Amino acid sequence: MDLVPALEEPLKKVLGPATAKVMAEHLGLHTVGDLLHHYPRRYEERGQLTHLADLPMDEHVTVVAQVADARLHSFASAKAPRGKGQRLEVTITDGSGRLQLVFFGSGVHKPHKELLPGTRAMFAGKVSVFNRRLQLAHPAYELLRADTEESVETWAGALIPLYPATAKLESWKIGKAIQTVLPNAQEAVDPLPDSLRDGRGLVSLPEALVKIHRPHTKADIADARTRLKWDEAFVLQVALARRRHADAQLPAVPRRPAPDGLLTAFDARLPFTLTEGQQKVSKEIFDDLATDHPMHRLLQGEVGSGKTMVALRAMLAVVDAGGQAAMLAPTEVLAQQHHRSVVEMMGDLAEGGMLGGSEQATKVVLLTGSMGMAARRQALLDLVTGEAGIVIGTHALIEDKVQFHDLGLVVVDEQHRFGVEQRDALRGKGRQPPHLLVMTATPIPRTVAMTVFGDLETSVLDQLPAGRSPIASHVVPAADKPHFLARAWARVREEVEGGHQAYVVCPRIGDDVDEPGDPKKPGKAKQKSPEDEAEKRPPLAVLDIAEQLRGGPLKGIEVEVLHGRMPPDDKDAVMRRFAAGETGVLVATTVIEVGVNVPNATAMVIMDADRFGVSQLHQLRGRVGRGSAPGLCLLVSEMPEASAARQRLNAVAATLDGFELSRIDLEQRREGDVLGQAQSGARTSLRVLAVIEDEEVIAEAREEAASVVAADPELSAYPGLRTALAALLDEEREQYLEKG
Question: Which residues contact 153 (CB under 8 A, 6 or more apart)?
């Protein structure tokens, strides 16, 4: 019978079924190898206490601290009516702060005997607030005694590893389980080529695993982390390099614009000159389009940097070369808007086959799910005959019925809103793989682009076209200073009365359908902190706020609402009225986040701004200041001044640099799983690599990976690397990259 390799041994055989079940369900750990790669989050030193001052709310934490005092109280309750109820309150300290522990009922006896003043222990539990003080209710604990043989053994070395844990499994139990399997680390197969490891002075993988779980010095931890970061960065970059290598082998039709064709005619009519950035990026795209393998390019540019113009010129070049171009937009409102603006920019060049159309002209068609049958049938016919050179649409473009005459280029707007499968389905509609241009207005730091979109070449548009106005942003602390909110509405009224328009954005719609984040469960009455109060209140809703504004601060101004559950025709009608200037104020959800272009809108008020991410706030803000008048963005929040949420808003108000904000956003959210949504749950494929801090490692790993793959695409000389890739690219991930 075949022996299972040591690291693939199921945990239930090694640790017993009960522990293995908790590890599988709560931490996603199934094998000895999984457990060895569950690294400590941080380390405690014997002589040093954790900072109780920095405890996060509602998180499961492990702290090392000393008991300051312990008091047993009696009380009466429904279960113990004669004052026989018992509550043990223990105060622990670490020099930076104090924390209260509470134990109730029969659970008080053991801690009452063990947690005497002066005792040091590790405590684990969920941080909550009671009477405005932080506390841990019924924490699990492990005494740190230096005298017993067992504990000296268990906590060998001066550094105590603290693991990412759950309520069902404390950090020290994970630590004990890891000590059980640590001898198997010697069997770990090293994915790094010897030349790379030796050239960079990295320790071997077995040594790194032992040092990260059982360090004797801080230098051990540093050696281990440096080595393990290289593993993660290198294996991921090899996966992406192989993807790029495979793409380079695919055939594609080169598309070179005709010398006096549609593109030349279009450029001749432009009423302005392209920015340097637009010219540079267009050249990169045209060079890619002229090759005989498919372009895979990511175009990032701030809101309003002129990406649509660059994409349109690429589409015209492909039409010139006899092909068709499709632009995929995430919503109907956006598809209609792109269609309108493309037709306007092209003028009679968009009237192919019509009277008065220019002789170089082509037809530009729109295809969305809510179109009437006749219009839809005509659009499908124009695509299959090749009459239409450009089609702009939503997911409707991906349906089986849609056939192209010769699809040469796919432009995807706002990549993060499209599933990989959808991009893949559209790509399958060309006779040969079409060229692909992905656009995003969410700035992505360079290393994230190298990691997340590592199979795409990247172009960046970072200048704003002439004539765009600056946007002033301010935080409005509605709870601390209610008169600031009154002033905000007065500013909106001033803008509208001065002939401009405004947006008011709310986190939810507010009809009766249950919405995510709607706290429907009545909580038990208890004293809450102001931050708690602001968090627990349901998010402000479009329908409620619109009603309040119409009857109050904006009385007499035309206020309309827009949200995702309205029928498409109604949405379009509202947007048209707003774009035409008939509506003064539009109260909306984030449906306006992408691509809505109303140059006359100068002010935006974002209610409960703390409920949005940093990048999302930046996107929303980009909707104002699109004309010659300066823009104003007011971020309204009820969160207290010292809260992390307010600091986030202050960061947004302080800079208009999207790349700077995306770094802040990422540092706060951590990376999630950079290979996409392939893994659910709390685990991420990056355990020690941080895409912001480890920029150099990622850039160097990308170069090393490219040279390894160029010399040996099948990796036949690197069996350890092949094994690591197979583990990283389980089925789902493999598909994710395939379709990326």
Answer: none
